[in-house]
């Protein structure tokens, strides 16, 4: 007969037994769900400012959208049809909002060609530092005219747009995921664009319900290259992206906007505006290098960066009055510049060839999803009025397939 002491319950043994059975249960009876089609979450990231005032990124998007339309035999396709997430800073945030906001019949407000024309006409005003309040007000009126009362909830995909909040002294990211969870995080898109391009002074941004407000200065200051923020959002947002296990499940297209003019040539001391751009571009390069290294062995297949190679153009190309569109065309024909952490930069295929490669990968993913039994992206459609929020990954959502 067993000793009475052995018949008594041992709390530590009970806990260990429970843990063992929990592991066995999770791995054998209810194994983790793994998507078997090697699907990838598609991320588009757009830098702020730069020497082209947004035109390089806009022209890159136009070339990409035109290629996708041609190869998919769909003349009405939009760039938003081929991406799950878009992040944009400064003028890049304006581009992201124009291209990923619902218009008529739930289609995007702007095509890539229309967005290029808008940035070509107005981009200089978004990227200049000017103390004239009158100019800034006219800029806000442009956004009001385009977006009206549309808010972050009215975007067709996940949207991330940064600015810097002077009140708390930290970067803030406007997020569709936050907006659909909590009214206090939903803002008018006209205010979001004004906040991320606020280089002429602070812009007061108030949430739709009036509960929260920030004092914003431009996204160029906070996060000129928002790629890392977009990647982090996807990797840690299990609610919207439940099948992502690591960078191997991502395909990222990151668009630069050219080098600051003061970096290209001249020996004069840079102005304050130029210094802001220099800092922004330096940080952009650092982010590019870090993200590129983070992709490791998947760098050549999962991460594409489009940026101008200033050394191949020459300072004379940037004189005032030069045709910017023609200059951008030259930039796209340049060899693509790849940043390698601790090793500087190296050139490989051209920017256009990189965009062609991206189009092919995006089309492959589009076709692959047609046979998926489960939705790859679960867009949150519910709104709560809770005043506190832990994470966009912790709130239940109404699901919809994202193709």
Summarize the structure.
Helices cover 43% and strands 14% of the residues. The chain is an alpha/beta fold. Helix 3 (55-72) crosses helix 15, helix 4 (91-100) runs antiparallel to helix 5 (112-127) and helix 6 (133-147) packs antiparallel against helix 8.
What does it look like?
By secondary structure, the chain is α/β, with parallel strands linked by helices. Residues 1-7, 27-36, 129-136, 314-321 and 383-402 have low confidence and may be disordered. 43% of the residues lie in helices and 14% in strands. It has 15 helices and ten strands. α4 (91-100) runs antiparallel to α5 (112-127). The longest helix is centred in the last third of the chain and has 24 residues, at 272-295. β9 (335-340) and β10 (344-350) form a beta hairpin. Strands 1, 2, 3, 4, 5, 6, 7 and 8 form an eight-stranded mixed sheet that branches. Strands 9-10 form a two-stranded antiparallel sheet.
Features:
403 residues, alpha/beta, eight-stranded mixed β-sheet, 10 strands, disordered N terminus
Report the mean per-residue pLDDT as an integer: 79
Overall shape: it is globular
Query: Element order, helices and strands?
Result: HHEHEHHHEEHHEEHHEHHHEHEEH
Structural class: alpha/beta
Fraction in helix: 40-55%
- Which regions are unreliable across 5 or more consecutive residues at pLDDT < 50? 1-7, 27-36, 129-136, 314-321, 383-402
Major sheet size, sense and barrel closure: 8 strands, mixed
What does the radius of gyration come to?
23 Å
> How many DSSP H or I helices?
15
Task: Give the amount of beta strand, in percent.
Answer: 5-15%
Distance between the termini: 66 Å
- Number of E-state strands: 10
